[in-house]
Amino acid sequence: MRRITRITTVGIASAALALSATACGKSSSEGGSGSDSKAAKAAIAYDIGGRGDQSFNDAAYAGLKKAEDELDVKGAEAEPSAGEGDADKVQRLTSLARAGNNPVIGVGFAYAPAIEKVAKQFPNTTFGIIDDTSVTGKNIANLVFNEEQGSYLAGVAAAKASKSGTVGFIGGVEVPLIKKFEAGYVQGVKDTNPKAKVLTQYLTQPPNFDGFAKPDLGKAAAEGQLDKGADVIYAAAGLAGSGAIEAASKAGKWSIGVDSDQYNQAGLASYKDSILTSVTKDVSDSVYNLIKSVKDGKPQTGEVRYGLATDGVGLADSNPKYKAMTDLIAAVDKAKKDIVDGKITVKTAP
User: Fold this and answer.
1) Model's pTM, two decimal places?
2) Exposed e or buried b for every residue in 184-218, given b needs 16+ CB within 10 A?
3) pLDDT tens per residue, range 200-224
C-alpha cells in the first residue's frame, strides 16, 4: 500500500483510535506535501469511532485504499478527537484542503456545518459528505443511501430467523439518520411476522455521540434485550455495535451487522459465526467514485444516492449458515424485488 498521511487533531483519542492509528503505519507532517505535491491527492476525515470501527469508517477507508491502488491517488486520513466541536472539524477540513487534497470527504453527517463553511473558502476543491443532504453547494457532493431499504431486508431476515418471536434494534444515537434504520427494520419484521415483538433502544441522545463510539454501551444494551427474550439483535451504532455483536455471540444468539460486511471484519472474527448477515451500504464505492470523478475532471456534485435497485444497500450473505436458510433467503429476495418494483414502500421514520 502506498503511504497514507494521517492528520491527528488536538484532543485525547480513545484506546480504539490509538490502536487504529498504530495500525495505519507511517505518518508524516500535515498534508503530506513535498516532492509528491503534484500527485493527485484525496482525503477523508473520519466520523466518531475513527478507523478500526469494523463498520462505517472502515468502509470509507476501503474506498480510499481502492482509489490508491487503482487510480494512483495519494490518500490522506484524519481522525476525530474526543469531545470535539464544529471548530475542530473546520480546522481539520481546512488543513486537508490547503494540503492540495481534492476531493476532501467528511465521513458522516456531523461534518455538515464544517463542510458548509470550508467549501466556500475553497471553491476549486470538491467536498464530499456522507449521509447528509442539508448542506449544498456547487462543489459539494452529498453521498447518501436508502438505509431503510437494507434495514427492511434485515427485518425480514430477523423475523424468519427468530425462534422466540422477539428481536432487538439498537441505535447508536437517536438522530433522523438512525431512525431510518429503525423504521425499515421494524417494518420488515412486522410485515414478515405481525405477531413479532421488536425491542428498541438508543444508546445516547445528541449532543452526546458516545453511542457511536463505545462498545460497552452496545454490549450492555444487547444484554438487556437478550434478557427480555430477543434472539436476533440488529445494531446501527458504529463502533458501539461491536459490543452488541459480542453480547449476542456469547449468548448463542444472532446479531445483524451494519454498514460493512461485519462477518468478514478481522476485529470481529471471534464472533463471526453468530453474525447472521449485515446491512451493507456501499460507502466504499461512494468514496471511490467521488475520487475518480474528480480525477477524471468531471466531479460529482449534488445528491448522489445509493439504493437497493443499484445494490447501493443490501444484505451480506457471507455466513454459510445464512446461505443454508433457504426459506429466509427466498423471503429476503422477494422483499427486495417488491421494494425495487415499487410494491413495498419502506418508511423512513418510525
Assistant:
1) 0.85
2) bbbbbbebbbeebbbbebbbbeeeebbbbbbbebb
3) 999 999 999 999 999 999 999 999 9
